[in-house]
UniProtKB/TrEMBL annotation:
This is Alkyldihydroxyacetonephosphate synthase. It comes from Saccharopolyspora dendranthemae. Belongs to the FAD-binding oxidoreductase/transferase type 4 family. Substrate binds at R404. FAD binds at P133, F134, G135, G136, G137, T138, S139, E266, G267, S268, L269, G270, V271, I272. The lineage of its organism: Bacteria, Bacillati, Actinomycetota, Actinomycetes, Pseudonocardiales. Pfam families: FAD-oxidase_C (PF02913), FAD_binding_4 (PF01565).
Length: 545
């Protein structure tokens, strides 16, 4: 799987692009009817047609960095710089398709160990060079944009060579992983010792351990394994003020937990070089299945009950009626119609798909946990769809980014955004965001598709994840999405968090103050001054310059 992913590929998820997940004729027909999409093909423009500014990088700084890292690990060629220009949001991908201006780093640094990262930072601080830590480059909030922030130059510090399993303590179930290791490699190295991390975000194939820590990532099995931050025992960072190591015991009362200044710091308070993660025995038995419930409120009440009774399946994912409709339509019109008839016959008017998946160490554990989950659902009217739908969801869980390539080629505005709030405010938040997105994406006579799901549930609340599909405004594609995104963020502010797992980056920064207040903003700024006095680390992201 990972063999298909090129590290520096930016314009699409894989080099085969849309061909990796072509849209079936029936899906296209359905999209034309449903959103008024017109027959069009808008393939990506080749990289050679993109405008790339020259590298303006002082010779003295370059010589010092080459002496430290080796000439081969200070790259100034166009392809290398272009390969670290921006992340993978809809706007990032559209910018490349439209040949719009890109934030291109002046150079790419490739250190191979934590000491070299520290050394490179010190050289950059001396020469007033901005440093953008670059993991898998899958940020969807502008987190890896090569912004200069008033500095003399900007470099992408790519952690791809920090890819080792440093140590494994099977008794404590802790693995120390270098930050540039990608999720598939981490899983396969841990599997060789009988362990798993259990972190499976949709960006699994490209994203890195350091990136997960830096953004407070959440994987699809977060209900069972926890968010990435729950897995972190310790972190090692390079900062312009010196090396910083955090986390020495499973729990501590030695003041505030400073690990949480590093976790979610998005490269603005240091470069994470190693992460000590809690690992779990690899599952021996798994089971994924799906049920349908009648209506969003019934579904969220059911998921709330599972969370509050502490019997959530490891994967618990509830789609709203629109997302359920789209999933069925994309799976094939005949199947969708047949299932809709069955559900209607059973009295289900607003089908909402609920996928449940358990990972267990034994058949007995699986049986026990599954029974507990299903028992908690006994008062909810459900139609069981069985294992085929659940297993199909599991086998396609990383195909979304490929399907996005195909939709982009067909002129669709396709993007996601996410938030979270407490149970009591969840439905109001969903309605407010839906309304904002529908109003701001509507162009023709047909409304855009705005779908939503809950995939991370807690005792006190849940996340909401929205996906939009609308005909792209071919004249103003970037402005079309910007308007909708801003309206959605306005709707979220004050009702929920501006990000449940995508982080703040550039895109969410205008709304962060509403969430953390003036005091919180000053605390972040003070922490930045302490570790990065000249402000070279990832300017323009998370913290106001
Ligand atoms: C198609 C798609 C699906 C996605 N699905 C999910 C999902 O299911 N769950 C989820 O949580 N996220 C998801 N994301 C968002 C993204 O994958 C996550 O934010 C991920 O954690 C980023 O990891 P990365 O290695 O790609 O980091 P990058 O994109 O390289 O960097 C992200 C941020 O962290 C900083 N950073 C990276 N590495 C380091 C380091 N070692 N030290 C300090 N700072 C660093 C960067 O400067 C940047 O600010 C998705 C993105 C895409 C494109």
């Amino acid at each position: 799987m990972n063999g298909q992913i090129e590290h520096t590929l930016r314009g699409s998820w894989t080099s085969s692009g849309a061909a990796a997940a072509p849209l079936s004729p029936s899906s296209l027909r359905w999209l034309r009817q449903r959103i008024g999409l017109v027959e069009t093909t808008t393939p990506a423009v080749p990289s050679s047609l993109l405008e790339v500014p020259g590298s303006s990088f002082a010779d003295t700084a370059r010589a010092e960095l080459e002496a430290l890292l080796g000439e081969a690990h200070v790259l100034v060629d166009t392809a290398s710089r272009l390969g670290r220009s921006g992340g993978m949001s809809y706007s990032d991908l559209m910018r490349r398709r439209e040949g719009a201006e890109l934030a291109v780093p002046d150079a790419v640094l490739l250190p191979s160990d934590p000491e070299l990262v520290q050394g490179a930072l010190e050289i950059c601080a001396r020469h007033d060079i901005a440093v953008v830590p670059f993991g898998g480059g899958t940020s969807v909030v502008g987190g890896v944009d090569a912004l200069r922030g008033g500095k003399s130059a900007v470099v992408a510090l790519d952690l791809v060579r920090l890819d080792r399993l440093v140590s494994l303590d099977p008794d404590s179930r802790i693995a120390v992983l270098q930050a540039g290791m990608r999720a598939p490699e981490a899983e396969s190295l841990l599997a060789a010792h009988g362990f798993t991390l259990g972190h499976f975000p949709q960006s699994f194939e490209r994203a890195t351990i350091g990136g997960f820590a830096a953004t407070r990532s959440a994987g699809q099995a977060s209900s069972g394994y926890g968010r990435f931050e729950d897995m972190i025992e310790g972190v090692r960072l390079a900062t312009p003020a010196g090396e910083w190591r955090l986390g020495t015991a499973p729990a501590s009362a030695a003041g505030p937990d400073l690990r949480h200044l590093a976790i979610g710091s998005e490269g603005s308070l240091g470069v994470i070089t190693e992460v000590a993660v809690r690992v779990r025995p690899a599952p021996r038995r798994t089971r994924y299945e799906a049920v349908v419930v009648d209506g969003w409120q019934v579904g969220t009440d059911a998921v709330r009950a599972l969370a509050q009774d502490r019997v959530l399946a490891d994967v618990t994912r509830l789609s709203d009626p629109t997302e359920t409709e789209v999933q069925l339509a994309m799976a094939g019109q005949l199947k969708a119609r047949a299932l809709a008839n069955v559900l209607r016959a059973k009295g289900i008017r607003n089908p909402c798909l609920l996928v449940l998946g358990w990972d267990a160490g034994s058949r007995a554990e699986l049986k026990h946990r599954r029974s507990a989950t299903l028992r908690a659902l006994r008062d909810v009217r459900t139609v069981r769809l069985g294992r085929a739908v659940g297993e199909s969801w599991k086998s396609h869980r990383f195909s979304g980014p490929r399907q996005r390539d195909a939709l982009l080629d067909r002129g669709v505005c396709v993007e996601t955004l996410e938030t979270a709030t407490h149970w009591s405010g969840l439905s109001e938040l969903r309605s407010a965001v839906r309304t904002a997105l529908v109003r701001n994406l509507q162009s023709g006579s047909k409304p855009p598709i705005v779908m939503c799901h809950v995939s991370h549930a807690y005792e006190t609340g849940a996340s909401l994840y929205f996906t939009v599909l609308a005909p792209r405004d071919s004249e103003q594609a970037l402005a079309q999405w910007k308007r909708a995104k801003e309206a959605a963020c306005d709707a979220i502010a004050g009702r929920g968090t501006i990000s449940h797992h995508h982080a703040v980056g550039v895109d969410h920064r205008p709304w962060l103050g509403v969430e953390i207040g003036d005091v919180g903003t000053s605390v972040l700024a003070a922490a930045k001054r302490a570790v990065d006095p000249t402000g070279i680390l990832n300017p323009g992201k998370l913290i106001r310059d």
